[in-house]
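Researcher: Next sequence.
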Amino acid sequence: MEVVNALGRRKAAVARVYVSEGAGKITINGRDLEAYFPSSILQFVVKQPLAKLDATEKYDIKANLDGGGYKGQAEALRLAIARALVKINPEDKPALKAEGFMTRDAREVERKKPGQPKARKHFQFSKR
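Model: Next structure:
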């Protein structure tokens, strides 16, 4: 099997993933998964598509993560892994889609407008 690549995005985070056959090693920006995401919850989020297909020990994953915070990066990585697994075996798509791993969460942070303290919050109105 050759190397399969995929892209995942969430908020401001972008994950580029390269999946090849291996022993289940996940490397992110040259570091181990446990070193990059010390939180066990985020490690769980990243491994969800692999766990769903019982493929945690089948593939080696090399990922480049850029932008965003750790939660956005973890969810971008989850989407990229799910897309790569579907490229490898298209029959897995319905199982991953049912869990919501194939859906790109398009919610972005709304920009702050001038004359306001935040995106939607307004300064208190004073008639006089």
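Model: Residues 54 and 128 are 67 Å apart (CA to CA). The domain at 4-99 is CATH 3.30.230.10 (Ribosomal Protein S5; domain 2).
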